[in-house]
Amino acid sequence: GAGVSQSPSNKVTEKGKDVELRCDPISGHTALYWYRQSLGQGLEFLIYFQGNSAPDKSGLPSDRFSAERTGGSVSTLTIQRTQQEDSAVYLCASSLPGSMAYFGPGTRLTVT
Amino acid sequence: RKEVEQDPGPFNVPEGATVAFNCTYSNSASQSFFWYRQDCRKEPKLLMSVYSSGNEDGRFTAQLNRASQYISLLIRDSKLSDSATYLCVAYNDMRFGAGTRLTVKP
């Protein structure tokens, strides 16, 4: 069966531009998570969705970051006015309630 | 204080060694725990769940100590292919530990 997919796999953008990252969770998974991982660092929690609502968005680092989820499925993470420190791998994961999460391959974002 | 804390290592062990990692958690209400493995430049993959009674999967044993609020992962007879970063997570908030880096050497 299909796993979590993310697009694009790589994104190079200029400082100040906006970017959108997409996550397609496993079908039927109601929970969806976004993380950020800088080189050599751990997973930084960004936001959690249960269905279309985001009960925990406490990890979003600034108001330049936003995320939405529609139809209880696809989610997009938007970064406005990108900065060089936004360069990282952005990982998405999905799960059934109370169960283990499965990760997508990530989007590698480079801000030049 | 971070929700989940791990010793970052690195742990460098010879092939065949037994190695153990601990992961402490701060939320006593946490119910479900998992260990993940992350290879270099790859996404994390589930290694095993951690059950209250402890569980074993081949060379890997996971245990939960609620009184002291930590989970552990024991790897017996280490293989070169076990070299990776091992991450723990408490399900209730899905905050991962920073990961423990293991290198198994010939």
Characterise the protein shown here:
The complex is a heterodimer of chains A (112) and B (106). Chain A is an all-beta fold and 112 residues long. Chain A is globular. In chain A, 34% of the residues are buried. Chain A has no helices and eleven strands. The N and C termini of chain A lie far apart (37 Å). In chain A, the strands form two sheets. In chain A, strands 2, 4, 5, 6, 9, 10 and 11 form a seven-stranded mixed β-sheet that branches. In chain A, strands 1-3-8-7 form a four-stranded antiparallel β-sheet, with no helix packed on it. Chain B has 106 residues and is mainly beta. In chain B, strands 2, 4, 5, 9, 10 and 11 form a six-stranded mixed β-sheet that branches. A five-stranded antiparallel β-sheet of chain B has the order 1-3-8-7-6, with no helix packed on it. The interface between A and B is medium-sized, with 19 and 19 residues.
What is the subunit organization of this protein? Answer: heterodimer
| Total strand segments of chain A | 11
Please write the string of helix (H) and strand (E) elements of chain A: EEEEEEEEEEE
Number of H- or I-type helical stretches of chain A:
0
Sheet with the most strands of chain B?
Answer: 6 strands, mixed
Q: Based on helices, strands and strand pairing, what is the structural class of chain B? A: mainly beta
Question: What share of residues are in beta strands of chain A?
Answer: over 45%
Radius of gyration of chain B: 13 Å
Terminal CA distance of chain B = 37 Å
Q: Which stretches of chain B are low in confidence, meaning pLDDT under 50 for 5 or more residues running?
A: none
Question: Order of SSEs of chain B, N→C?
Answer: EEEEEEEEEEE
Shape of chain A: globular
Count of DSSP-assigned helices of chain B: 0
Spans where pLDDT lies below 50 across 5 or more residues of chain A = none
Question: Whole-number radius of gyration of chain A?
Answer: 13 Å
Q: Average pLDDT across residues of chain A? A: 94
